[in-house]
Amino acid sequence: MARPLFSFEFFPPKTPEGASKLSEVRSQLAALHPRFFSVTYGAGGSTRDYSMATVLDIRQAGLDAAPHLSCIGASRDSLRSVLAEYQQHQIRHIIALRGDLPSGMASGGEFRYASDLVAFIREETGDWFNIEVAAYPEVHPQAQSAEEDLRHFKTKIDAGANAAITQYFFNADAYFAFVEECLGLGITAPIIPGIMPIANYAQLARFSDACGAEIPRWVRKRLEGYHDDLDSIRAFGLDLITDLSARMLQQGAPGLHIYTMNQSAVTLELWRRLGLNT
Ligand code: FAD
Which CATH architecture has domain 5-274? Predict the structure, then answer.
């Protein structure tokens, strides 16, 4: 059986202290042998230098890095130079995204959708990169309908993406239904569930509203009931994502992508509970 596709996501730290803490987290997580560490990229290139520095640190440690690259507000020239730099550093994975412009920032730019970026990367660099794109089992918040969203997802795959990583979700059925629908359209690329640890209810509720991930009522009620008791929130959150991840793997998901929030403890414990350490 193929080895599951495990990957861990970081955001780029903006201070030397953050960078040194992240390198510790990275060495702890490297022991789990992920396929790659991915690094987010602020829309409009807002974290370009920090993202590049974090990616290069990962490479210097001899590990595989998968930079995220968002295209909204970007020019072809600027993305061409980012791609060239990644190639120079022997980076072979990229997560291609549209991105969301901060409110008030004019859209501009030469790309509209992630599918345009995927096509551009293929045009410019052929098969150099393994390209992953985003998928939304609970439907992207701006989509006109689930059907349209699925059609647009297929456009990204047809443009040359090799695999997809999902937005996080807590409803396993949404994931499996999405994968079924994709198969119905002939999409056989791996669709890797994105798993979000729960550390703070207010933050999770804010993120979920913005990205269209549903927090089931029973989960919301439990989390609200813990108020400021962070230990209980984390313990409950860990149980929840352990069950979700176990179900994903048992029912055939091709791997897991963990939104680590630059922390190692939850992922290390999740791996222990899932028996994936060996
Ligand atoms: P797209 O695939 O372009 O889709 C965006 C919307 O447009 C959807 O509603 C889709 O249905 C619609 N659409 C697509 N094509 C068409 C078309 N031809 N006509 C009409 N409508 C169309 N954001 C960042 O800024 N930086 C990151 O590093 C980052 N990392 C992420 C990692 C993962 C795994 C995920 C799931 C998301 C990430 N995001 C990141 C967030 C992402 O940028 C947002 O969710 C964004 O709103 C959509 O990006 P997309 O690549 O899915 O866009």
Answer: Alpha-Beta Barrel (3.20)
**Residue among 5, 7, 71, 97 to mutate when testing ligand 1 (max atoms within 8 A of CB):** 97
**What string of pLDDT tens digits covers the 278 residues of the chain?**
678 999 999 999 999 999 999 999 999 999 999 999 999 998 877 888 999 999 999 999 999 999 999 999 999 999 999 999 999 999 999 999 999 877 766 666 899 999 999 999 999 999 999 999 999 999 999 999 999 999 999 999 999 999 999 999 999 999 999 999 999 999 999 999 999 999 999 999 999 999 999 999 999 999 999 999 999 999 999 999 999 999 999 999 999 999 999 999 999 999 999 999 86
CB of 277 within 8 A of CB of 271? yes
C-alpha 135 chain-centroid distance: 9
End-to-end, the C-alpha distance of the chain in Å comes to 16
Domain map (residue ranges) of the chain? 5-274
Tokens of 103: 């409110």
Angle at the Cα of 159 (from 108 to 76), degrees rounded to 5?
Answer: 30
Catalytic residue IDs = 9
Ligand 1 lined by 234 (C-beta under 6 Å) = no
pTM over 0.85: yes
CA of 99 to the centre of ligand 1 (A): 6
